[in-house]
Specification:
Layout: E1 3-9, E2 28-33, H1 35-38, E3 42-46, E4 54-56, E5 77-84, E6 93-94, H2 96-99, E7 111-115, H3 118-122, E8 133-134, H4 136-144, E9 149-152, H5 170-177, E10 181-184, E11 198-200, E12 212-214, E13 218-223
Parallel strand pairs: 5-7, 6-8, 7-9, 9-10
Antiparallel strand pairs: 1-13, 2-3, 4-10, 4-12, 5-11, 11-13
Helix pairs in contact: 4-5
Length: 224
């Protein structure tokens, strides 16, 4: 029987001051109760749904798309295909040619995780917004192979626009439009040692129209 040999944490810590996507709500923590006055601790937390390591539901971009609590949990766990695209220049496009060497492992149920190391090196700095992004063609090829979960260790699989240009949102439009999900701001993908880890990206089961949720992303390295 197989077991868990090692767990690699792929999640950013979240607290006051955690860097967020431009104009997103900033996290705030407030002590609601304290041991010294109330005999127990309770923390009140204010977060945007896309704070830190998180997942996007189709409803994030699709008006009648599924909300986070309506999604099949299988979208958030599956064999991971970690594609190494490290060494890219700021704002470089990740095309299908960079992913194609792993194409034979992309199938329904797989979770494609693009390793840029951008979060590891740049998170918390202005350079975090200059991350590489995924081409529309690459996203379409991924969807054609049945993959419905795309993850990246950066703020977004789309280019983060900081000037007057209009974003295209190709990756979000294609993946979420196909009923898939996107995980963003993963970290530590380079610490995964096995070729096909079990990736788990489970969000909070938020209701009332939640378009996404922070998640605790981990890679499970299984043993025989």
């Amino acid at each position: 029987m197989s077991g868990i040999g090692r767990i690699v944490d792929l999640s950013l810590p979240v607290g006051p001051g955690t860097q967020v996507y431009p104009d997103d709500p900033e996290p705030a923590f407030h002590q609601a109760f304290r041991i010294e006055t109330d005999r127990f601790n309770v923390l009140r937390i204010e977060l945007g749904t896309h704070t830190g390591t998180h997942v996007d539901a189709p409803y994030h971009f699709v008006e009648d798309g599924a909300k986070i609590d309506e999604l099949d949990p299988f979208l958030f766990a599956g064999p991971g295909v970690i594609v190494d695209v490290t060494g890219l220049e700021p704002r470089a496009e990740i095309g299908w040619d960079a992913i194609e060497p792993w194409a034979d492992r992309l199938r329904p149920g797989s979770i494609l995780a693009l390793r840029t190391d951008w979060t590891d090196r740049q998170f918390g700095t202005e350079g975090a917004y200059d991350h590489p992004f995924v081409s529309a063609e690459a996203c379409e090829r991924i969807i054609e192979r049945g993959v419905r979960t795309l993850a990246i260790d950066a703020f977004s699989p789309d280019e983060t626009i900081l000037d007057a240009r209009e974003p295209t949102w190709d990756a979000h439009r294609i993946v979420l439009g196909a009923g898939g999900v996107i995980a963003e701001n993963l970290t530590n993908l380079g610490a995964v040692r096995v070729e096909e880890p079990l990736l788990c990206l489970f969000p909070l089961r938020l209701s009332d129209g939640a378009d996404g949720s922070p998640c605790r992303a981990v890679a499970l390295e299984l043993t025989d």
